[in-house]
Amino acid sequence: MAGSGSPRSSRHGSRRGSRHDSPRNSARSHFRRLALSKVYALLEPGPVLLLTTFHKGKANVMTMSWQTPMDFEPPLVGCVISNRDFSFTALKASRECVLAVPDAAMASKVVACGNHSGSTVDKFVRFGLTPQPAALVAAPLIAECFANLECRVVDTRFVNRYSFFVLEVVTAWVERGNTEPQTLHHRGKGLFMLSGENIRLPSKMK
Ligand SMILES: Cc1cc2nc3c(=O)[nH]c(=O)nc-3n(C[C@H](O)[C@H](O)[C@H](O)COP(=O)(O)O)c2cc1C
Question: 178, 177, 154, 174: which is closest to 166 by C-alpha?
């Protein structure tokens, strides 16, 4: 599998062939083994979002970082929302939500929304978040967030197995004049990274 000619072995061409320096052994000295439970922290996509729902007359908000873009237009977003979360039931039943994008200044409120459940707390009141009516869905926008995406659930085929919802963004709002918001990215266990410097490269990606 790691035989000669693979990109990995050719990069170490002069040392190839020695049993002692086989790719597997050199990997062992260069890398340390990472606990499988920590893998997610390497891949956390971010930014950390707030997801709002409205169900049975009650608005709720939870923190969510396991999301991934799935298509350009209409924009599709895949989200993992645990079935232990109050929001799971609301989203499954109402099939609507808002993905609100907070900036770094909201970090402590964002974490608080992830540490409490809407089953016992009105998080809008407790953490000073302002719900605003959305245009197309019953779930509220969050006034303090620099972007708000109104979404409908369009695919639930992976919900029972993976708690994975596919959302379509039906309307998107961004704060006027806020051109360089600093987003929050989860690195696991209470560690967060703030977005920083931009660099421009000739990428063919849209
Ligand atoms: C930084 C951060 C990221 C989180 N990401 C997710 C996530 O992607 N999916 C998820 O199900 N829960 C996630 N959580 C946990 C939920 O936000 C948490 O269980 C919350 O209490 C659920 O609220 P609810 O019961 O009101 O729905 C995250 C929490 C934090 C602090």
Answer: 154
**pLDDT one-digit tens code per residue, 149-158:** 999 999 999 9
- Rounded to the nearest angstrom, the distance between the alpha carbon of 200 and the centre of ligand 1 is 33
Query: Which is the closest atom of ligand 1 to the Cα of 111?
Result: 31
Q: Which CATH code for domain 40-194?
A: 2.30.110.10
Nearest protein Cα to ligand 1, atom 5? 64
C-alpha–C-alpha distance, residues 68 and 99, integer Å = 12
Residue 10 has pLDDT above 90, yes or no: no
- Domain ranges across the chain: 1-31, 40-194
List pLDDT tens digits, range 79-129: 999 999 999 999 999 999 999 999 999 999 999 999 999 999 999 999 999
Residues lining ligand 1, Cβ inside 6 A: 48, 60, 62-66, 80-82, 85-87, 111, 114, 116-119, 186
pTM for the predicted model, two decimal places? 0.87
Q: Which residue has the higher pLDDT, 38 or 161?
A: 161
Q: Which atom of ligand 1 is nearest to the CA of 53?
A: 27
Q: 102 with 48: CB under 8 angstroms? A: yes
Pairing status of strand 49-55 against strand 96-101: antiparallel
**For residue 123, which phi and psi values (nearest 5 degrees)?**
-70, -25
